[in-house]
Every structure is written in C-alpha cells, then in structure tokens.
Write a structure and sequence with these properties.
Distance between the termini: 46 Å
CATH architecture of the largest domain: Alpha-Beta Complex
Number of domains: 2
Strand content: 5-15%
Structural class: alpha+beta
Number of strands: 5
Helix content: 40-55%
CATH topology of the largest domain: Aspartate Aminotransferase, domain 1
CATH class of the largest domain: Alpha Beta
Length: 212
C-alpha cells in the first residue's frame, strides 16, 4: 500500500469488492486511472481513537481523495470538527496533503516525494510546467535539483521537521506552476539573497532563478 498510496489503494479495493459482488474475478493487475500522489514521510491518516467506526473513516478517506478544490477540503475539515471535535495532528496533515495533491494535479505533477533529506518530483507526460523553469532550477541549484530522465527531478534538501516539508512542498509546487515571464530587472535587495539552498535546515521556499 505504501507504493501505490492510500487513494489508489482504496480505489483498487473498491474495484475488487465490486467484482466479487458481481461474481467476477478481481483484475488486480489492471491499470487504474493515474492518481496524483504526495508523500511527505509523516503520519497522515484519521486515527481510530478519533473516529472509531471504520466505515465512517473509509468514507472520509474517499471524500477527501475526491475533493476537487481547497474549499471542498476546508468544508470536510469543518464537518469533521463539528462531528468529532478538534482534529488530531495526523488528520490535519491528511487534509493539508490533500491540498498539495490538488496543486500538484493542476500543473501535471504525478508524484511528489519529500522526506527529511529531500526526495523527488515525477511529472506527467502531459503537464503545464514551463520547461525553462525546470532547466533554470537545475542550472542555478545544481546541489539541490538534478534531472533523472525526462520526467523526474531529484531533490536534495535537509528537511527534518514535518512543518519544513509542508512549507517546502507548497513553495516548490508554486514555483513549478509559475509561467514564463518577460525578462525584467531584479531589485538589488533581492539579488543579495543568493545563498546556497542546501546549506540551511530551514524550510525556505525554493528560490527561483534570477531574472535579468
């Protein structure tokens, strides 16, 4: 389940159950529609101690996975709070990751994997990311970003805390989602911030390339 992700696992399980009910052999090796995955190497689930009923938990997982906007995720957050009380940290992380998935899906990121020492980004074959943005990231931050084939970029960054990983992932997706802009002068104050990205353990947003 770790490899395919929770959303896809639930989808596979749903297909298998329907097949068995209809008297068919489950086709577990049949490809499913690709699902955007975001893995931050942290607890992100609805604890049994928070919602004891397994059917309610599974229903919430499906609704979270099916949410199509940040507003829909916020509504689920409010509903869970009203029905079951303040959300535990793991449930809050689950909803925050749901929003990251929406951002990733919107630009064509297939999988974002960020752990304590970095991770990787896998792109869909068809995506809306400006190739120039990726090239400049690799050129300007060679110690932080490197390409591994046409659809994968390796990330190197010290991100020991969960909050750092959330901040970094959010900033990275926003950077990848930026469209190419006409060249313009960079303010002197901004150009003075050209420090190595990997040296700091703070979850600073990934720095975009200098614009001339």
């Amino acid at each position: 389940m770790t490899e395919v992700g929770l959303a896809m696992y639930l989808d596979m399980l749903d297909h298998a159950v329907k097949a068995l009910k209809e008297g068919r052999e489950p086709q577990l090796d049949r490809p499913l529609v690709a699902a955007t995955e975001v893995e931050l190497r942290l607890p992100a689930f609805v604890p049994e101690t928070y919602i004891a009923d397994v059917h309610v938990r599974l229903s919430l997982y499906k609704r979270i996975a099916a949410a199509e906007s940040n507003e829909a995720v916020d509504e689920l957050n409010s509903e869970m709070y009203d029905r079951f009380g303040p959300l535990p940290a793991a449930a809050q992380s689950l909803l925050k990751i749901a929003k990251l998935k929406l951002a990733a899906r919107a630009i064509g990121v297939r999988r974002l994997d960020v752990g304590p020492q970095g991770g990787s980004v896998t792109f869909e074959e068809k995506n809306s990311i400006d190739p120039g943005t990726v090239v400049r990231m690799v050129q300007k931050g060679a110690r932080d970003y490197r390409l591994e084939g046409p659809l994968k970029m390796r990330l190197t960054r010290q991100l020991p805390t969960e909050e750092q990983r959330f901040v970094f992932a959010d900033a990275l997706l926003k950077l990848l989602g930026e469209k190419a802009k006409p060249a313009e002068a960079m303010p002197a104050a901004a150009s003075a911030k050209a420090a190595p990205m990997v040296a700091s353990t703070k979850a600073e947003p990934p720095r975009g390339p200098k614009r001339k």
